Amino acid sequence: MFNRFSFRRFYALALKEFIQMRRDRLTFGMMFGIPLLQLTMFGYAINTDPKHLPTVVVSGDSGPVPRSIIQALRTTEYFDIAPEPVSEGDAQEMLAMGDAQFVITFPPNFTRDLMRNQHPQLLVQADATDPVAVGNAVGAVQGVIEQAATRELQGPLASIASADAPVDFRLHLMYNPERRSQVNIVPALLGIVLTMTMVNITAMAIVREKERGTMENLLSTPARPLEVMLGKILPYIAVGYVQACVILGAARWLFDVPEEGSFLLLGGCILLFVMANLGMGITLSTLAQSQLQAMQMAFFFFLPSMLLSGFFFPFRGMPLWAQYLGSLLPLSHFLRIVRGILLKGNGFTEVWPNVWPMAIFFLGAMTLAVVRFRRTLD
Question: For the chain, where are the E strands, in sequence order?
Fold first, then answer.
């Protein structure tokens, strides 16, 4: 009976664990890789005060006052104003597609009406699907516009400048006028839940067969690698649709999220997104040697997807390198799709720029999975 603590036994067991940990290079790398990834993401990529937001101008007046206002908005660094004005139709299309965050509309004779103290109207439209992304910019825009207009009213026009609100400022928060966080977060949860479950479940599919000893039976069948891959992901597509229906139902009946667009179009995009994540999960499953490794790799994929997709933090607030990295992940594109369809009523033309990257990701992941799949246990 071992009734005394033995330092020798303790040292032997600890040494064994160190050796095993060193041999499991994936786990060893995860212990250092995940903290470094979190440090990099939170330290460099996360920014809750985004600037240089894309802004377009619809101008019916090319006078000095609109030019002064535009220059004043540029100096705030919140607005990255396009050099040339656009038409009203193009501006609304850019808002719907997410290419513009703000639209500033100057009516005809804006300068003349201002000089006559007729309080010309100036309309600012903001894409408020993500209230955090436009919060500080919205807070600054009215004051900047009024100050710029007042500076132009000098000399005999000083009496107009001293009056209250020489410009009739109108702010329209598009797609989420009440700036409710549920309108932004709940649709995005559809992408988060599908990514987390689909990747985690399928990441263990091939490895589980090996650990249970049933891989021999699978390999003895005439099924080809692609048939095995597709056969394993098909049941989870149905699971993904069940999850989507539950979340969309909760969004409508519990959180009063508007659902403006086509559910048929959304259903097709959900299918592609689910398949992209299942393809990634199968790829990780072919790389892992155990279910623990598969779960670790799935988490390593899920963490940057969640942080770089625009779910928690504004996408445009991240540095360019983080935006490029986030654009490689299917979740970033799916969040734009689901928010665009539900909140903006986008059609196929508007969502297509985010559909084809998910299709390419799925094809790449499945190709890699088929290449990695082995017809033997060696």
Answer: 53-59, 79-81, 102-106, 121-127, 168-174
Q: First-to-last CA distance in the chain? A: 43
The pTM assigned to this predicted structure is: 0.84
**Long-range Cβ contacts of 110-118 (<8 Å, 24+ apart):** 110/60, 110/61, 110/63, 110/65, 110/66, 111/61, 111/63, 111/64, 111/65, 111/66, 112/63, 114/65, 114/149, 114/152, 114/153, 114/160, 114/166, 114/167, 115/153, 115/157, 115/160, 117/160, 117/163, 117/166
pLDDT one-digit tens code per residue, 207-250: 887 777 776 677 677 777 777 777 778 888 999 999 999 999 99
Phi–psi pair at 256, nearest 5 degrees = 55, 45
Count other Cβ atoms within 10 Å, centred on residue 334: 30
Instruction: Output the DSSP codes for 169-183.
Output: EEEEEES-TT--HHH
Distances (CA, A) of 171 to 58, 61, 127, 187: 15, 19, 11, 25
Amino acid at 113: D
Non-local (6+) Cβ contacts of 171 within 8 A are 124, 126, 138, 141, 142
Give the span between the Cα atoms of 308 and 322, in whole angstroms.
7
Three-state SS at 60: coil
Amino acid code (one letter) for 316 = R
How far are the Cα atoms of 276, 284, 378 from residue 368, in angstroms, in the given order? 12, 10, 18
Residue type for position 85: P
